[in-house]
Design brief:
By secondary structure, the chain is of the alpha+beta class. It has 16 helices and 34 strands. Helix 2 runs antiparallel to helix 15, helix 9 packs across helix 10 and helix 11 runs antiparallel to helix 13.
Length: 680
């Protein structure tokens, strides 16, 4: 597999020696490869030249002159610029009178632990160890046990979830200095602070969140103005009031960069004192916010907006399910009847008018180039031990779209506002959320595949590509090929990231976009709030490190997504362990030269059917253009998106792996099974 090139090139003007900045990719043998953006081949670094660098670290590497192997440069790490991880899981061991932790990740070195840093851990315990110091190459790092992971106390699945979090660079607990700072945060909002803000506590304001949410970071307000326009307020928790630059709280929030949502827990970016109490927009409590307040006509035309700090008071907490019930109960009421609806049902008129606005904004977005991929979410039903006893597939409905459209509107408006500001005649550094155009080669392969289903793509311009996607997505609704075309279409898309270089957001069809609406769980939103306040005060102090911070936040977001995927896979394996030997209908969700993956239709659990298990049918070759395995003798195809019936053959929790077998193979009479032919 080709490695993704990242990092920066740094050439020395003084000497012919070259220095590069890149990411360490460690192999099992201890040899590392430094991935550098722009280099065709990674730089090879022997273990003795790593200079304490570990897997995933960002480093500065110097090329060793006249050292090349197979056309690949060899180098030496000069400096570790940024450690990817400081904590690791492993087993505490004692040998030759030394106590150390053998990490679970075989890429990592053993960590020595002095007696005063062992705490209550005993040899053989599964622990979390934090590196305190590393005196140099040729020596082992020294660390401290920060947590004992005891399956006997918390259960095997709890330990597994914690291991996943730590392995992706997310600390399980907040440092002492952070917890100390929490003690000094004000419980009551000072009158002097209220006087400096727009007071909108009298407005009809409410939150809409998942049923199990506790951190309410956005609220909506609504009223009809005398001229018939609507005033819609998007109110976002003002985390920047409590989390100040330079504090331990801020440093830890930046380090984590995001909250992580696993099937059975949330690891917050900020301590619960902030995320679930001080900043959570709970009903009937005064809360500090950063707000965008719009004046919009009943037909969705935005006339004015105001941005600034506010104090609000939510009147009601809604769940998505409650709002969806209201929408479905009043779906047939048109705009005119809603405008004249008596206010005897609290919040119904406000919610339905917001629903109409949201649907109008959604249609406008799609008409102007946004790509309308549908989305669904898998949620596990857990028992008291967090063991999965059921799986529910949740689809995005109109209640979700109501919040989504209002948040998109606020995010876009804030980005457009910031883009107009200048510092010394230059645009101010700002953390945009950007999304590049689709990869050209992937797009060509996908369009050829879509043509087999009768969908012709116009690849001449970015706008025509988006229009082709939307036309296809509308036509495939409810058809057998919907899942395969949507899934493959998403795979052609670039990954959205944070950057000070504003290239726009292709998927949303916006020229300017940022993340402003979730500062409780995303650090870039907090950065946006701070810069926004500087603009409003007319005192802009550009952050020279902002692009570096954007890269860090993008990387931590990627780590969080990988942790969430791993945790979901673990829960899927846990669930399917109860169903070994049972038969399910599924859809082929991926194809490779060594087999194909099948996702069960009802439970969305993905497992592998190996090429070896298909030997009784035929020998198969892999076709990249057709996303298929094709039988050499029979011509039989297993294509991405095909429906198949599978039997759950094995479930391996340690490897987080499900093995399926094709029922078609199992039910063939022994004499009719085709013998595997040897290759000539």
């Amino acid at each position: 597999m080709a490695r993704k090139k990242r990092g920066k090139t740094k050439k020395s003007a003084a000497t012919a020696e070259r220095e590069y900045q890149g990411i360490v990719d460690m192999t099992r043998s201890g040899v590392a490869y430094i991935m550098v953006e722009g280099l065709e081949k990674d730089i090879r670094v022997k273990q003795k030249n790593l200079n304490t660098a570990m897997h995933g670290d960002e480093v500065l590497v110097k090329i060793i002159p006249h050292r090349q192997k197979a056309g690949r440069m060899e180098g030496e790490v000069l400096q570790v610029i940024n450690r990817k991880r400081h904590e690791f899981t492993g087993v505490l061991q004692v040998a030759a009178s030394k106590t150390f932790v053998a990490p679970d990740d075989e890429h990592l070195p053993h960590v020595l632990v002095a007696p005063e840093h062992v705490h209550d851990a005993k040899p053989g315990d599964k622990v979390v160890v934090k590196i305190l110091r590393w005196k140099g190459a040729g020596r082992l790092p020294e660390g401290e046990i920060t947590q004992i992971l005891d399956p006997g106390l918390t259960g095997t699945n709890d330990v597994a979830m914690k291991e996943i979090l730590v392995s992706h660079g997310f600390p399980l607990v907040f440092p002492n200095e952070v917890m100390q700072e929490l003690l000094h945060l004000p419980e009551r909002i000072p009158d002097t602070e209220i006087q400096q803000r727009k007071d909108v506590r009298d407005l009809i304001t409410f939150t809409i969140d998942p049923v199990d949410a506790r951190d309410f970071d956005d609220a909506l307000s609504f009223r009809i103005l005398k001229n018939g326009w609507f005033e819609v307020g998007v109110h976002i928790a003002d985390v920047s009031y409590y989390v100040l630059p330079g504090t331990a709280l801020d440093e830890e929030a930046y380090r984590r960069a995001t909250s992580v949502y696993l099937p059975d827990r949330v690891l917050p970016m900020l301590p619960e004192k902030i995320s679930n109490e001080l900043c959570s927009l709970r009903p009937h409590e005064d809360k500090l916010c950063f707000s965008v307040i719009f004046q919009i006509t009943p037909h969705g035309e935005i006339k004015k907006h105001w941005i600034g700090r506010t104090i609000i008071r939510s009147k009601r907490r809604f769940t998505y399910e409650e709002v969806q019930e209201i929408i479905e109960a009043h779906r047939n009421e048109d705009l005119d009847s809603l405008l004249h609806k008596p206010a005897n049902e609290p919040f119904v008129r406000e919610l339905m008018l917001l629903h109409h606005l949201a649907q109008h904004l959604r249609k406008e977005r799609i008409a102007h180039g946004a790509i309308n991929f549908s989305s669904s979410e898998v949620r596990f039903v857990l028992d008291e031990r967090a063991f999965p006893v059921g799986i529910v597939v949740k689809e995005s409905k109109e209640a979700h779209q109501l919040i989504e459209e209002m948040m998109l509107l606020a995010n876009r408006t804030v980005a457009e506002f910031a883009a107009k500001y200048r510092y010394k005649q230059q645009p101010i550094p700002f953390p945009y959320r950007v999304h590049d155009q689709p990869d050209e080669e992937k797009l060509k392969i996908f369009s050829a595949f879509a043509l087999k289903f009768g969908h012709r793509f116009d690849l001449s311009t970015p706008q025509s590509i988006a229009a082709s996607f939307n036309k296809m997505l509308a036509l495939v609704q409810g058809r057998p090929e919907q899942q395969v075309l949507e899934s493959l279409g998403i795979r052609t898309m670039a990954k959205a990231v944070y950057s000070t270089e504003n290239i726009g957001h292709y998927g949303l069809g916006f020229d300017h976009y940022c993340h402003f609406t979730s500062p409780i769980r995303r650090y870039p939103d907090l950065m946006v709030h701070r810069i926004l306040q500087q603009c409003l005060e007319g005192h802009i102090v550009p952050d020279k490190e902002l692009e570096k911070k954007c890269r860090h936040c993008s990387e931590m977001e990627r780590q969080a997504m990988e942790a969430e995927r791993e945790a979901t896979k673990y829960k899927q394996v846990e669930y399917m362990m109860q169903h070994i030997g049972e038969v399910f209908d599924g859809v082929i969700s991926g194809v490779a030269p060594f087999g194909f993956w099948v996702e069960t239709i009802d439970t969305k659990c993905e497992g592998m059917i190996s090429l070896q298990s298909l030997a009784s049918i035929d020998e198969f070759r892999y076709s990249e253009t057709e996303y298929a395995l094709i039988g050499i003798h029979t011509g039989k195809r297993f294509r991405f998106g095909d429906t198949v019936t599978i039997l759950v053959a094995a479930a391996n929790l340690q490897k987080r792996q499900l093995d399926y077998e094709l029922v078609e193979v199992l039910t063939q009479p022994a004499g009719s099974r085709k013998k595997r032919h040897k290759r000539s």
